[in-house]
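User: Need the bound-state model for adenosine-5'-diphosphate:
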Amino acid sequence: MNLKNSKFYKRIQELRRFSKEKIRKDREQRTSVRLDMALSEQRPGHDSDLEWSSSPRRHISPRRRIKKTKTKKKSAGSRLTAGKDTVCSSPADGELQPDDGIQSYIQLNDKCYRLSCTRQLAGKDSRVDDSSISEAKSAICVSNSRYAMIGKISKTLGYKLVKETKLWNILWSDSFPGVELFKNMKRFQQINHFPGMIEICRKDLLSRNLNRMFKVYPHDYKIFPKTWMLPADYGDAMNYALTHKRTFILKPDSGAQGRGIWLTNDLKTIGANERLICQTYVHRPLLIDGYKFDLRVYTLITSVDPLRIFVYNEGLARFATNKYVEPTPGNTTDLYMHLTNYSVNKRNSHYELCDNDDCGSKRKLSAINNWMSRHNYDVKEFWTNVDDVIIKTVLSAWPVLKHNYHACFPGHDKIQACFEILGFDILVDWKLKPYILEVNHSPSFHTNEQVDREVKRPLIRDTLSLVSAVLADKRQIMREDRKRVKQRLLKTKGESLQRPRANGGSSIGKPKIDVEPEEELDSLAQQIAWEDSHMGNFRRIMPPVDATKAEYYSQFYGQTNQVSIFAETAASKKREDLARKMRLQIEEKKAKQELMLNGRNKTDKRKRQVVLLPRAVREKNRVQLYRLQEHWVPGFISDAEERLRHTWLQMRSEAIRSLRITESVYATLYEAGNLSNTDMAVYPHLYQHLQNGFDIKQHI
Ligand code: ADP
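Assistant: Bound-state model below.
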């Protein structure tokens, strides 16, 4: 039977048409409400008067979310509160008055802004036309991400999955994209990485930045264990080791997943030219059930200028799998006791998978909070300290982040061009003091265990709900851009298209776009309102809700005035010296090679001169050589000598095999990240084993 001819099918089609028609009519009749917002800079002194407040909301898909924009924005104003007093109370739904004015003050970085919101009935002139946004479906490109979950969640939120070549709104990539991509981004596009975030995401750069800040603010920046970058700081580290009896942890400068990490009490064992990060070992960590653990705190940055940081209330605690004992020379090699990396501990047979909150080698932050409450720790104060560590870590790279952002996106005026989820690894000591160990710019979104799914899925969902990609009207921006190009081509008289930008950012090859400062502030106000009303399970830590805290952090923005991040430090001088020495060595080598080549050329020339003998002589020589070759016989080969040679060769092969020299060299190259493609192709089995985490030096 043809289903399409059935009565049932026809009836369904009829009902669908009917409901569509009804929705269309409803839409036409409904009075649309728009929210007009403007930010203007205020003189200092007002910042403490008023502040924002927000409450977690349930998830709404961007598609539905956009359709609800009108109603949401209607209520956005009502969420503005002033310290104790509410600035403006929202009238009941339907009672909207034509020019409801809301005013508030917000502190952004070190400046205070006045925010004014005006509600207007549709039809009146409004600078923000949300009706056009509602028609477009946001598109996301996840083809550069290995996590299928991102695409799936985006789909459920109403995003359309597209290829990188299409006009996406959001590009989600696991790796850091190239500058070329930044350069070509449209004003409605967002990407999940900030240019320059590497400043805190590489161990060596992070320690350089934190050390620099520690020198200027010694009381505020005690947020990380004492760290030295070897070989530049070798002397300092040795001096410290002489006066302090401590255990040190040594890490490769750009390693991850616990690879190449070891503990030592004796720094003399380290070569003076080894490139390593040396850190004092936090020897009395907080223990739960006798195990050491660290915290993975997910942090979302939605803007660097002004700095806006959100921390996810749920996260992971990763446990070591052997009970902790303070380091002694006998136990420093027990990585299952001293390291808390999942990639290390999953190899231990004691790794515990558990669906219950209070057991297992991976637990939720909420379970840790419960444990702390049960043991009478002040959970609120602890998290305030963690937030402080996160803010200060980001602030240590703020000048670079700000500079890079403005250089890459001089015309991105509608929405922020970037957002980023960072994974902060925090170690807690027995006094509940948090230390920053590392920041990951692409934290793992693998969902191997139930606990991963429970944490990471909502995290992605809340992130995609919070980011302001939907606030940009793709079509309108495209129209504007086309118009601009047209104008530029026609070189419209009297109109300069390249007016200097308000923030004075320099571009990287992009034509500067005419951006009105007020327009930019309007967009910023919209972004702030959007983010603060779509926080889900995030909490905003920057700008802080508390005005005194905002004032406290504002001092760190001025770091460039006190010590330039490009200024020379003793370590940087040493590093430069080392680099200069290496450069000289390389140049010397090159010169030698060239000399040899030139010398050879000279001898060639000489030879040619010698060869250029009279023809008769040359012919005579040739005949003589031929005769010699004809009568050439091999010399005597001693059998005994030959047997000995064979035996030695066999012994050598046997030694290489039994001492696992190939495996050791291969593993060392792998750990140092120096394996070439050929190495991977020639020894695929070794590479496979290393990838699976086996220790090929010991077994296999
Ligand atoms: P990786 O990037 O290789 O994971 P980390 O710096 O995160 O390197 O260190 C790996 C593990 O080593 C951490 O999870 C932590 O358990 C332990 N660790 C690192 N630094 C210290 C330290 N200073 N004190 C105590 N434990 C540390």
